[in-house]
Amino acid sequence: MQHMYCDSLGSVRLVEAADPVIEAPTDVVVRVRATTVCGSDVHLVHGHLPTPWGFSLGHEYVGEVVAVGAAVTRFAVGDRVVGPAAPWCGSCGACRRGQTQRCERGGVLGSGARWGGWGGTMAELLRVPWADMDLSRVPDGVTDAQALAVGDVLSTGWTAVRQAVTDVGQVVVVLGCGPVGLSAVHTATLHAPRAIVAVDAMPDRLEVARTLGATHALAAGDDVAAAVAEISGGVGADAVVEAVGLPVTLALACDLVATGGRIGVVGIPAEPVPLPFAQLLFKNVTLWTGLGDLRHMDDLLRFIAEGRLDPSPMFTTTRPFAEIEQAYADMEQRTPGVIKTLVTVP
Hints:
Layout: E1 2-8, E2 11-16, E3 28-35, H1 39-45, E4 55-56, E5 61-68, E6 80-82, H2 93-96, E7 125-128, H3 131-134, E8 136-137, H4 144-148, H5 153-164, E9 171-175, H6 179-188, E10 195-200, H7 203-211, E11 216-219, H8 224-231, E12 237-242, H9 247-256, E13 257-265, H10 277-282, E14 286-289, H11 297-305, E15 315-320, H12 324-332, E16 340-344
Parallel strand pairs: 9-10, 9-12, 10-11, 12-13, 13-14, 15-16
Antiparallel strand pairs: 1-2, 1-4, 3-5, 3-7, 3-16, 5-6, 6-8
């Protein structure tokens, strides 16, 4: 098979590799039908998320089962499936406490030895561990693009929304309209908010945010606080999702949130960030941060099948697998107009 392989700092290319095989009775092997490039893939290649060099890249996929381990009971050859970016075993201490994101035996697909040493999804074939525990069957009528969003970004965005939104009729602000922020905008529609306010510096991303359900789209750098005050009747945002991880956006989240409001942070700061804790304390603000909870893929797939969600507009570009190196370059170089690329695998 072919896969995207990172052999040294800043170097990633499409190369030949041995086909994966069943290694444990709970494994399946999946023929990848669609994959994509994430910003964290770029961070890995450039050493911002340290891991030993020499690994297959990618953690998002939709595929078809082509081989099944002896202990797998829920899936068969030919099933169309989507899996989590971070596999979990379901039986370790972290999983039993509900912290599957930090499974003691798991990690993150396609992220090198420090993150579990699992194969990457920018490949023609993928070995998936703990298949019965982790995989979701893709319903008929749900496209590969729609399902592809479920295994990482849509789940992560919805995690932040569920932590920040506590009732119907709330004003929800999402800071940052990359794929995770757009996923927060989109899944916020499930909670019957009064307003969904998307904030970003790039007009094309704000346009996609409107398509995905934003009622208001604000350009970063404008007086966002004044606009949110007007939208909320002077109260502020009941719920804020921060999906950037910059000091300026984290500080803005603290300014925008209403008294008694909640902030969900899924943006990953590159360095320590100061926070105005006295301000948060006197406003009785609840601040949550954490990794995406990937255990609700079945729910998201059902919402898509029912027509309540359609995350496919965030895939602004489509490329065949033969052009995956260019898809990576587009993400690395932040090519204008490219939010997320759907890579189709023959």
